[in-house]
Amino acid sequence: MSASGILEQTEKMEEESVKQEIERINRIFAMQQKHRHIVAKSSVGERIQKLKKLKQWVESNTEKIHKALYSDFKKSVPETDLTEIFVVTTELNHAISHLKRWMKPKQVSPTVPFLTTKAEIRYEPKGNCLIIAPWNFPFNLTIGPLISCIAAGNTAMVKPSEFTPATSRLMKEMLLEVFAEEEVAVFEGAVEISQALLAKPFHHIFFTGSPQVGKIVMKAAAEHLASVTLELGGKSPVIVDETADLEDAAKKIAWGKGVNNGQICIAPDYLLVHESKKDALLDKIKQNLNNFYGDSKEEKENSSDYARIISTRHHSRLKKMLEDTVNQGATVYAGGNSNAEDNYLEPTVLVDIPEDAPVLHEEIFGPILPVKTYKNLDEVIEYVNAKEKPLALYIFSNSKKNQELVISSTSAGGTCVNDVLTQFLHPNIPFGGINNSGIGNSHGEYGFKAFSHERSVLHHHAMSPLKLLMPPYTDQVKGMIKMLLRFF
């Protein structure tokens, strides 16, 4: 068979595969529509048992998870344990321990005009849910939202990323073992599969990815008035003032930019450092990168602790961004080396960057750290506020005044003081963006609420004093209404 014939046959096979998966989407969506009422009525004990079964699978198959993540982008075992498995098991343990309290109706205190009423808030499942996950933390950012979805009593159709095929296949295998497809089902594939899923009238959509795709998801949700949780990204600044502990800041910034090869929505995107501390801080960041991954170019490229860029396309994007920035006059302070065959890009620090350079305007999502200096915090606040609201903002400072000034004068999804990334790991605080960096929250009780409808229930009796305010509006009724307006 000729090359063109083989290509044509391959395309036909791919088209048939997509057609079959879309038929499967239609079939399973109908199944879940019917089954969601049963799942919604599941008890706290039944939901906890599902979460325990999921946890047991994860703990029994860690080696498979390690192999899948290494296959997709050479993620080391310790990094997989820390950023994928630990995050998921922590979320599971937290949900299992607290779900009974989360599900319990919350009693509401009445105001004076409603002293004769009794009110509560009940948490009911939203229904049929769609989870669209990204490729950068394919296990963590797929299973994490699913835990909240299950805890809240919903059905779920899950679309992991096509860029991490090994991990996507493993999660499909896992969820087929743990759940019936009428409750949880996984769909592999590219854009056509995502489009077919988004065309369905889901009750809630949980999406993690770029702001550009987030807008597409939100438009699709609007067609069915579905609620959304959008975890997006943006350019998250890290600020180092003149009072900061430079040893501490440098180590954490180097780690935050190097872990997962910088492919993190909350990674430090750019660094703003007080001009008096620039040289010392950059020297320490460079030292820490060498300590983490090796002193020489060869040692870094061969480091088993350093992941790879997810694909050739993303590697090309980052390399072009770096080259364009350097061609515009920026200086490579550290790193800069790459190997396209292995999707490798060395941790890179840039200085002397022109303001119109691409690294200062596009979300980097890779191991490139642009550095700018400042003289006073007013400059920093003005610079940060001129951009879209970031998913994260970091400040290294030992000045309470400076910390508070930055936090109170800016807006961000979340903030760490004297640390990076760790806000994602805390189960008792919400994780989420604002405007361009996202809508809604996740993790712990906030994730449970994201997949729940807070239903108000008010009880009243026949002796309601509100009857006294009903028509006809006699002078006596009018007087009582005026008293209500005046005193309550």
Low-confidence residue ranges: none
Mind summarizing the main beta sheet? Answer: 7 strands, mixed
How many strands in all?
18
Number of helices: 16
Q: What's the shape?
A: globular
Give the distance, in angstroms, between the N- and C-terminal Cα atoms: 85 Å
Helix coverage percent: 40-55%
* Percentage of residues in strands: 15-25%
Q: Could you tell me the mean pLDDT?
A: 95
Whole-number radius of gyration? Answer: 26 Å
Identify the strand order in the major beta sheet. Answer: 10-13-14-9-8-15-16
Structure class: alpha/beta
Layout of helices and strands, plus pairs?
Elements: H1 3-40, H2 44-60, H3 62-73, H4 77-103, E1 106-108, E2 118-125, E3 128-132, H5 140-151, E4 155-159, H6 165-178, E5 184-186, H7 191-198, E6 204-208, H8 211-223, E7 227-231, E8 237-240, H9 246-258, E9 270-274, H10 278-293, H11 297-301, H12 312-327, E10 331-334, E11 338-339, E12 344-345, E13 348-351, E14 368-374, H13 377-385, E15 392-396, H14 400-409, E16 414-417, E17 438-439, H15 444-450, E18 452-459, H16 475-487
Parallel strand pairs: 3-4, 3-6, 4-5, 6-7, 8-9, 8-15, 9-14, 13-14, 15-16
Antiparallel strand pairs: 1-2, 2-18, 7-17, 10-13, 11-12
Helix pairs in contact: 1-7, 2-4, 3-4, 3-6, 4-5, 5-15, 9-10
Report on this structure:
The chain is of the alpha/beta class. It is 47% helix and 17% strand. It has 16 helices and 18 strands. It has helices at residues 3-40, 44-60, 62-73, 77-103, 140-151, 165-178, 191-198, 211-223, 246-258, 278-293, 297-301, 312-327, 377-385, 400-409, 444-450, 475-487; strands at 106-108, 118-125, 128-132, 155-159, 184-186, 204-208, 227-231, 237-240, 270-274, 331-334, 338-339, 344-345, 348-351, 368-374, 392-396, 414-417, 438-439, 452-459. It has a 7-stranded mixed beta sheet, sandwiched between helices. The chain has a 6-stranded mixed beta sheet with strand order 5-4-3-6-7-17, with helices on both faces. Strands 1-2-18 form a 3-stranded antiparallel beta sheet. Strand 3 (128-132), helix 5 and strand 4 form a beta-alpha-beta unit. Helix 3 (62-73) packs antiparallel against helix 6 (165-178) and helix 9 crosses helix 10.
